[in-house]
Design brief:
- The chain is built from 15 helices and two strands.
- A hairpin with a 6-residue loop joins strand 1 and strand 2.
- The longest helix is centred in the middle third of the chain and has 19 residues.
- About 20% of the residues are buried.
- The structure holds zinc ion.
- The site of zinc ion has 7 residues, from loops.
């Protein structure tokens, strides 16, 4: 029998991913191809995130009413790029993931550049300025609480006690909003502890002059944030 090819009609078990047919069910079960592998991976976190972004991409850029499916996704020539971006999102944990995804799509950033640092930095600058003050306040306090838990300290003492490098990094990455940094009493105490290098990093990422203008224009929000911070002893 060796060397003889099985007639096609006897190969009854077809892989729905690559259309290859096999005589035995077991062979099909053990068979693996690129799309079958992708299908098996569909519930992993980067893949799920990648698929979500893929759906959003088509929603924002095409008029098609027919929703894309997982099958469309795994057959896409951009599959690997979307999964790579999903992995990047899972690691980066952006401030407001949905807003960041919309930012790269709506600004026409090339797919291969979605994971570049300068893209997230540009998004962050814009987002931190645009977001409502109460949202900024809420998420900053969540970050301070995380810090407090890790350091067995009280969240209200973040600016007084957090390690200078860590605090600078959290401000630079937008996790501590300028709304809280500049409008709290204890924010000044952090500035007193920082060195010139830290100050430079902060100035480059948030530009204090921009914030003077923002506070000038958004007086109601300033009063609201300042009163909450005061009450919380921050
Ligand atoms: Zn296959």
């Amino acid at each position: 029998m060796t060397g003889l090819k099985m007639p096609l009609s006897k190969k009854k078990h077809k892989c729905k991913f690559c259309n290859n047919s096999f005589a035995r069910e077991n062979t099909l079960a053990n068979h693996m191809c690129v799309r079958k592998r992708r299908y098996a991976d569909k519930d992993r976190k980067p893949n799920r995130l990648g698929f979500k972004v893929y759906l959003r991409f088509f929603k924002l850029t095409t008029r098609s009413k027919k929703p894309k499916t997982v099958e469309d996704f795994i057959a896409s020539q951009y599959y690997n790029d979307f999964v790579r971006f999903g992995r990047y999102l899972a690691e980066l944990k952006p401030i407001n993931t949905d807003a960041f995804v919309d930012y790269v799509i709506k600004n026409g950033v090339k797919l291969k550049d979605w994971t570049k640092e300068y893209v997230y930095d540009a998004y962050l600058k814009e987002h931190v300025i645009k977001e409502p003050a109460d949202k900024a306040l809420e998420r900053t306090i969540v970050e301070m609480e995380k810090w407090a838990k890790q350091n067995n300290d009280c969240f209200r003492d973040f600016f007084r006690k957090a390690n200078e490098n860590e605090a600078t990094f959290m401000i630079r990455s937008g996790r501590i909003s300028p709304w809280v940094l500049y409008l709290s009493e204890s924010g000044d105490e952090l500035f007193k502890r920082l060195n010139e290098e830290h100050g430079k990093i902060i100035d480059e990422s948030i530009n204090p002059e921009d914030w003077e203008v923002i506070f000038e224009k958004r007086q109601d929000e300033v009063e609201f944030v300042a009163s909450i911070l005061d009450e919380a002893g921050i």
